């Protein structure tokens, strides 16, 4: 499982076995981009210094998604915060990571029509079952919640991103929801990209609620 990136794991967790993505597309885009940045951070290529994302090692990672993001960050002359990079990079990440998962056989691309009217693209598992990669991710997260020992960095980051996306209850439905949410939130606070993703999602939800209230009272 070590050669599967964090952004790929998040993409797998985002889709049910029928290949339908959960939640809004924009939120998913931001979550995937946060995972992509943390792939670079875990690989020792970037860090946050003085509130800005900086390249600490320009060497290629030999992974096309992270290398493309690393090149974008290197080429930028202006210092940018994590939130800025998540927004700027989010446009292309979902399409790229799903294409890679199809190429590697972890997902299958299918097109159909919802209610026989609206075109839809789904990404189901090839055999209709959860992949071993996704199962391994859930077991690692389960251990992070229930185990007494230290949690390795990749798993802690995964838990933090899942918390930011609001998926904590869904990924481990057999555990007490409050226990999972509390533990995942602890991880989220230590992960700079997860904090940025949560801020973006929270701000978007606040705007949406305000617009709903305004429409209802106007």
Fold topology:
Layout: H1 6-14, H2 25-42, E1 46-49, E2 52-55, H3 64-75, H4 82-103, E3 110-114, E4 118-122, H5 132-146, H6 153-165, H7 168-171, H8 177-188, H9 192-217
Antiparallel strand pairs: 1-2, 3-4
Helix pairs in contact: 1-2, 2-3, 2-4, 2-6, 2-9, 5-6, 6-8, 6-9
Give a verbal description of the structure:
- The protein is mainly alpha-helical and 218 residues long.
- Helix content is 60%, strand content 8%.
- It has 9 helices and 4 strands.
- It has helices at 6-14, 25-42, 64-75, 82-103, 132-146, 153-165, 168-171, 177-188, 192-217, and strands at residues 46-49, 52-55, 110-114, 118-122.
- The strands form 2 sheets. The chain has a two-stranded antiparallel ribbon. A two-stranded antiparallel sheet has the order 3-4.
- It starts with 5 loop residues before the first helix and ends with a helix.
- The mean pLDDT is 92.
Q: Tally the helices: what do you get?
A: 9
Provide the structure class: mainly alpha
Q: How many runs of DSSP E, i.e. beta strands? A: 4
Q: State the strand order across the main sheet.
A: 1-2
Order of helices and strands: HHEEHHEEHHHHH
What level of helicity do the residues show? 55-70%
What's the gyration radius in Å? 18 Å
Given as residue ranges, the uncertain stretches (5+ residues, pLDDT < 50) are none
Which range does the strand content fall in? 5-15%
**Biggest sheet, open or closed, and with what strands and sense?**
2 strands, antiparallel
**Averaged pLDDT, please?**
92
CA distance, first residue to last residue: 53 Å
Shape: globular
Oligomer: single chain
């Amino acid at each position: 499982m070590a050669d599967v990136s964090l952004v790929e794991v998040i993409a797998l967790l985002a889709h049910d076995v029928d290949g339908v993505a959960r939640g809004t597309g924009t939120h998913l885009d931001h979550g995937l981009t946060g995972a992509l940045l943390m792939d670079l951070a875990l690989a020792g290529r970037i860090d946050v210094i003085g509130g800005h994302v900086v390249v600490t090692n320009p060497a290629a990672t030999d992974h096309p998604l992270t290398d493309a993001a690393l090149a974008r960050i290197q080429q930028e002359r202006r210092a940018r915060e994590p939130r800025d990079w998540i927004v700027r990079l989010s446009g292309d990440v979902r399409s790229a990571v799903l294409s890679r998962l199809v190429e590697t056989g972890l997902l299958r691309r299918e097109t159909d029509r919802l209610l026989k009217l609206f075109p839809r693209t789904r990404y189901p598992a090839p055999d209709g079952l959860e992949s071993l990669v996704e199962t391994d991710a859930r077991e690692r997260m389960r251990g992070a919640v229930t185990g007494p020992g230290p949690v390795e960095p990749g798993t802690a980051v995964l838990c933090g991103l899942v918390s930011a996306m609001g998926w904590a209850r869904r990924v481990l439905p057999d555990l007490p929801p409050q226990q999972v949410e509390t533990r995942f939130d602890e991880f989220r606070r230590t992960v700079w990209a997860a904090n940025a993703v949560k801020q973006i999602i929270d701000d978007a939800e606040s705007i949406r609620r305000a617009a709903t209230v305004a429409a209802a009272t106007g």
